[in-house]
């Protein structure tokens, strides 16, 4: 089994220290050292023209969840600066009507053909679907004006280029700003930031190519303009690994496997469907997620009575080993390109056909009834569910730490994005809805790995939970450095929870 946290770890994947000529930076204490971070907020908006020096037009290509959110946030934050934001769409795009409805139009040259927008922009933000980007990036690169900045919010394209012997075009800065939340969260919390300064979704940033030395401040300005309350540095390669692994593990795939397996377990134990749903899905997305968001991982166990702690401990001890093995397997397949190839192959196989949904399983039929009775029915933390979920989250944390990811990236990709962005949406609608309505890359990954987690827990973890808890494993959890890392990150958390809007029927997650 991979080593538990506490031993020597490779922590040199990327330097987290940087300087800015525009923004005031802070040093955040993390286990084993410090990281440089930028605390965001609308009070920094007057500095945006300086950060975007040389940028007169930003082209956002794509109107998926991230494109829809980022184009609007950038436009609103840069209003009055003379920097224009335009949306570029492929010919015949069905998204054009929605873009017009949100104020991007051909009449004022803020909506147009994607290659035309790319050719006319100083910063081109590539937010089209991953597989489309893999197929059409050369056309986009060829359209760029000399020295135009290439902007990404995801490392998928880097993985594709490396897998196929390609590279970004020389002479162009390449930067990434990657919100640690789905597009709906990026927009919704930005809107809440008008009332509570600093409300937003945390972002990582990366500078992949910087031929003229302006990339760091430009990336930071982009993050501030999105409303990010906390911006930390990574590399495009590191972001790609953590993001793709995370959505297949604790952010989507593992959550689906956890709640499906637990629902079955509680039904077999004699619970009616509503009770089983409350003990599984409702618990993870509700009280467990809220506790972690507000007080950290350890607080979930600490709030239980002695009997509950014993149940938690046995579930945690039995779940951690198979969960860690699966996260390690996912990481290896992402790192060697297997997962990327599977996404591209699936897209070729499926083409324009609609993907089958997972929401047909019996448990999802009672979700609406559970949500309808929340006002008069309080659900408490179910200790066994809590042990399974926290163990799986910790397994991802440990795998990322062993692989050398910086602590800000570890806690954002493994904890904060889950409890402050994705799980609140799952609580409002359910896990199956989220998986069935996320980006194609995330959806394919969740559909591939969710059943693997489900099988591992049903066949390995739950039978093993009858044994005594592993005291050494629990001591490692209790003294885990992630608690200090989360406490440091919590100081930058905005003082507001996301207010989830009613479902609109569109895609709700992913890039």
Query: Which CATH-level-2 architecture of the largest domain?
Result: Orthogonal Bundle
Neighbour order of strands in the largest sheet: 1-2-10-9-8-7-6-3-4-5
Please give the count of helices. Answer: 21
N-to-C span: 33 Å
Strand content: 5-15%
Average pLDDT rating: 92
CATH superfamily of the largest domain: N-(1-d-carboxylethyl)-l-norvaline Dehydrogenase, domain 2
The global form is: globular
Major sheet description:
10 strands, mixed
The helical percent reads: 40-55%
Strands, count: 10
The CATH topology of the largest domain is given as N-(1-d-carboxylethyl)-l-norvaline Dehydrogenase, domain 2
Number of discrete domains? 2
CATH class group of the largest domain: Mainly Alpha
Structural class: alpha/beta
Explain what the structure shows.
The protein has helices spanning 48-51, 65-77, 96-101, 114-120, 130-143, 156-163, 183-192, 215-226, 236-248, 253-268, 273-295, 298-302, 306-335, 338-350, 367-372, 383-402, 407-429, 431-436, 440-464, 471-478, 482-490, and strands at 26-30, 33-39, 57-61, 84-89, 111-113, 123-126, 149-152, 174-179, 203-209, 230-233. By secondary structure, it is an alpha/beta fold. Helix 9 crosses helix 13 (306-335), helix 9 runs parallel beside helix 17 (407-429) and helix 10 crosses helix 11. Pfam families: KARI_C (PF01450), KARI_N (PF07991). Residues 38-238 form the KARI N-terminal Rossmann domain. Belongs to the ketol-acid reductoisomerase family. Residues 235-377 form the KARI C-terminal knotted domain.
């Amino acid at each position: 089994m991979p080593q538990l946290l506490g031993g020597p770890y490779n922590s040199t994947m990327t330097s987290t220290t940087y300087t800015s000529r525009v923004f005031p930076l802070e040093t955040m204490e993390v286990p084993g050292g410090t990281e440089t971070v930028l605390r965001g907020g609308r009070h920094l908006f007057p500095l945006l023209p300086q950060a975007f020096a040389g940028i007169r037009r930003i082209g956002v290509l794509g109107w998926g969840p991230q494109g829809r959110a980022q184009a609007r946030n950038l436009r609103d934050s840069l209003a009055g600066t003379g920097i224009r934001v335009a949306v570029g769409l492929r010919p015949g795009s069905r998204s054009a009507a929605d873009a017009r409805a949100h104020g991007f139009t051909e009449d004022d040259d803020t909506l147009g053909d994607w290659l035309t927008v790319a050719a006319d922009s100083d910063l081109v933000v590539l937010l089209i679907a991953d597989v489309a980007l893999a197929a059409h990036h050369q056309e986009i690169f060829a359209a760029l004006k000399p020295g135009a900045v290439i902007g990404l919010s995801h490392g998928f394209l880097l993985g594709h280029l490396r897998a196929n012997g390609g590279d970004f075009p020389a002479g162009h800065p390449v930067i990434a700003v990657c919100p640690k939340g789905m597009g709906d969260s990026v927009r919704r919390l930005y809107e809440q930031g008008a009332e509570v300064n600093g409300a937003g979704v945390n972002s990582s940033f990366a500078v992949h190519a910087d031929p003229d030395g302006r990339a760091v401040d430009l990336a930071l300005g982009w993050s501030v303009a999105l409303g990010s309350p906390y911006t930390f540095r990574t590399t495009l390669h590191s972001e790609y690994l953590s993001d793709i692994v995370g959505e297949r593990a604790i952010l989507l795939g593992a959550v689906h496997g956890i709640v499906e397996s637990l629902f079955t377990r509680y039904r077999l134990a004699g619970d009616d469907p509503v009770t089983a749903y409350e003990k599984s899905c409702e618990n993870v997305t509700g009280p467990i997620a809220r506790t972690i968001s507000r007080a950290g991982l350890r607080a979930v166990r600490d709030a239980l009575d002695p009997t509950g702690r014993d149940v938690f401990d046995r579930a945690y001890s039995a779940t951690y080993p198979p969960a860690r093995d699966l996260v390690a397997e996912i990481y290896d397949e992402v790192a060697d390109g297997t997962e990327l190839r599977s996404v591209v192959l699936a897209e070729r196989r499926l083409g324009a056909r609609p993907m089958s949904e997972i929401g047909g399983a019996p448990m999802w039929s009672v979700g609406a009834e559970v949500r309808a009775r929340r006002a008069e029915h309080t659900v408490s933390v179910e200790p066994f569910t809590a042990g399974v979920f926290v163990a799986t989250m910790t397994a991802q944390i440990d795998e990322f730490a062993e692989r050398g990811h910086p602590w800000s990236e570890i806690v954002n990709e493994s904890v904060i994005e889950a409890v402050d962005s994705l799980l609140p949406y799952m609580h409002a609608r359910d896990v199956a809805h989220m998986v069935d309505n996320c980006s194609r890359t995330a959806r394919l990954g969740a559909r591939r790995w969710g059943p693997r987690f489900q099988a591992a827990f049903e066949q390995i973890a739950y039978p093993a939970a009858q044994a005594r808890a592993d005291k050494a494993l629990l001591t490692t959890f209790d003294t885990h450095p992630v608690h200090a890392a989360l406490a440091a990150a919590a100081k930058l958390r905005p003082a507001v929870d996301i207010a989830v809007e009613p479902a609109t029927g569109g895609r709700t997650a992913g890039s």
